Fold this sequence. Notes:
Strand content: 15-25%
CATH superfamily of the largest domain: PAS domain
GO molecular function: sequence-specific DNA binding
GO biological process, one term: regulation of DNA-templated transcription
Protein name: Transcriptional regulator PpsR
Oligomer: single chain
Organism: Thiobaca trueperi
Amino acid sequence: MSPFKAPRESLGVLDAETAAALIEGAADIAVIVDESGVVSDLAFGSDDLLSDFSADWIGQPWIATALPESRANLELLLKEANHQGATRWRQISHTSLHGVGIPIQYRALRLSEGGPIMAMGRSLQGMAALQQQLVDAQQALERDYWRFRQVETRYRLLFRMVSEAILIIDAPTQRVVEANPAAGQLLGETPTRVIGRPFPEGFDPESTQAINGLLAGVRAAGRADDVRARLIDSMQEFLVSASLLRQENVSFLLVRLSPLLTDSASTAMPEAKARYLRVLENAPDCMVITDADGRILTANITFLNLAELATEQQARGESLERWLGRPGVDLNVLMANLRQHTTVRLFATTLRGEYGSTTEVEISAAAVRNGERPYFGFFIRDVGRRLHAEPSISPEQTRWLDQLTDRVGRVPLKELVRESTDTIERLCIEAALKLTGDNRASAAELLGLSRQSLYVKIDRYGIAADHTSEPTPDTQVKTG
């Protein structure tokens, strides 16, 4: 606070009436309190406060006019005025004639030693009204936010449950923003892998041109006639419709794909396919379909039981390698042979369940081309309870054992062990080459060797002469 430099010269001409007029004009409310805390005089500079408060304050203790929660603050104001003469601003709330608390900001001044105290107040009703409006606006925003969240939840649930394939596409770039599960199933991909890819993709050239024309018409005019489209290498035909959707100055295209049934296929084909799918679903052998990366697109009940899974959703999108016996080896060998031969037969391995069970299985697989996106079908058979015949011993193995026995006592044990190790290593390499169809890269993975190390060992043992021919579909290396 900065006081006047010469108050006697500047304000010495003021009398009591002039000072009262200045106080009444400067303050919304002015209260004179005697030394015992009783209101001796009262003035209102605001008509609003005059209508809100009663003149009965005069003769009452000033503390009795304040709300209970403000009385402690009022006592501090009076105490500070008695000790220091002038006080800082303090907020005190009074009860109005309408029963509403009105906040007043006071500053008090002791007029003389042991004399009365004058308190000048400013009404904070305007600020309180603004604060209340702010609180109301915040609560309205909160209600709108939760209402929008509920609407979004209902939309996403409906979007996922609807049986028709629906795509939301960014209009300028024609890339998929959202796709429901039905769209992913129709396009042969999981919905997460469809997002971000250009549309249309995977359709034949004529259908691609028709869909592009449809989307251009919708962007220009807001609507266009539906078109027919067909996926590459598929006889299934779709009716493609689109509509324009604007959101926050951004344009999206809502695309719907509806399967069409031809007259010849409308009766016989759906029923035949339905029977075929029901047989695969309930087959005693596991049936798994994966994408080109080995991630599961669908699996039947037998596989779920063997892998100890409750629902197909737990397997969908996961790599088949997660349940195979040799991680990093089995699936790579299978994929390499499928890409080279398109079929694999009787690949022996194990299948691990989610809770630690292990089952011996045989895997046969086939690769199916679907345009640029092939997918693989795996038939997995439980052979754990099959009666195995005793493994046959080849003449070469018998001759080697006889020679080893005859040399005992004539050749040091150290040399016998070294020769035995070389022979066993050679037999393992030959078995791996036989298992993988002479695919040296897959055999190296199966043996846990680098390709260079395998090539060196093949040359060292002279195996190259026995395995130089390219594998054929009829070899006994479990490729078809």
